Every structure is written in structure tokens, then in C-alpha cells.
Amino acid sequence: MFPFLKQTSPPHLPSGFVLESEQAPSSRELNRLLSKCKEKTHPPRRLDLALRNSTCNLSILEQSTGKLVGFVRATSDSGLNANLWNLVAEPGEHQAQLLAVLVHRVLETLRRDIPGCSISVSAPSIALNALRQNGFLLDPGGIRAMGFRLR
């Protein structure tokens, strides 16, 4: 059976956290989380533009404080391709579970809204398990992604 057809039980959000899909975080909040996860931060104006032009954004917030602890965004050509960006979850005891929820939920959204599209992802190594559980293959058929920095 193809790995992407494998049915996995949906991961559950740990108690004390909420999933937000309507309101994207501020660039300041997202940069704080990216920095805490040892990921590259971005100029606020460019990050705001990226957030506005994303197909969807998913955030995980601490319920009691509203603090951003997990995030992923997707871009798409609304037809054949989608890309996941800024997949991060705050380091700690819930990190793996938060990543699993983000990956599962964003894939659920993309499958519903853009069925049949190809999905690629730029993610930290800590997210590999969550990605594999949801059918992603690392460098399938020897294909490797390349990036180009726009100035």
C-alpha cells in the first residue's frame, strides 16, 4: 500500500492548548517562536506579506495565556501544488504532539480544499516523525528540494 494512503489515527491536542485557524499570529509573535525553535526569523514586513498571502495558517496557543506555541502555514497555486512553511512547535514535553497535530490538521485542510495536489514541506528534523506518520517520504525517488533566496 502507498504510504500516503495509510490511515493514521488523528493526533489529539494536549489539554490546555487551542488550535486557531482564523487569525494568523503577528510577525513579532511568529518570529519569537521561530527564534525559540532555533529557526531563521524574517523581517516583519516580509513575514506579514507571507502570512497575508498564505492559503492557510494554523496556530496552537496556550489556552490560559494566548501565547503562540505552534505554527504552520501553507501556500498553493490552488491546483497542483502546495507547500508547508514555518512548521514549528515550542520545545518541551508537548513538542512532538503539537507538531503531529499541526501536520495532520493542515493536511486535512489541504486535502479538503485542494484534493489531489502535491504537497512539499520545509521543516526541521524534529518534525520528521510527524511528517512520516502522515505519509511524507524523505526525498522520494532521490528528488531533493532546492531553495533560492530572494532579496
Ordered list of secondary-structure elements with their pairings:
Elements: E1 17-20, H1 27-36, H2 44-52, E2 56-62, E3 68-76, E4 81-89, H3 95-113, E5 118-121, H4 128-133
Parallel strand pairs: 4-5
Antiparallel strand pairs: 1-2, 2-3, 3-4
Structure description:
The protein has 151 residues and is α+β, with helices and mostly antiparallel strands. It has one domain (3-137): Gcn5-related N-acetyltransferase (GNAT) (Aminopeptidase, 3-Layer(aba) Sandwich), CATH 3.40.630. It contains 4 helices and 5 strands; from the N terminus they run βααβββαβα. The protein has helices spanning 27-36, 44-52, 95-113, 128-133; strands at 17-20, 56-62, 68-76, 81-89, 118-121. It has a 5-stranded mixed beta sheet with strand order 1-2-3-4-5. A hairpin with a 5-residue loop joins β2 (56-62) and β3. The longest helix has 19 residues, at 95-113. It is globular and about 40 Å long. The N and C termini lie far apart (43 Å). Residues 1-5 have low confidence and may be disordered.
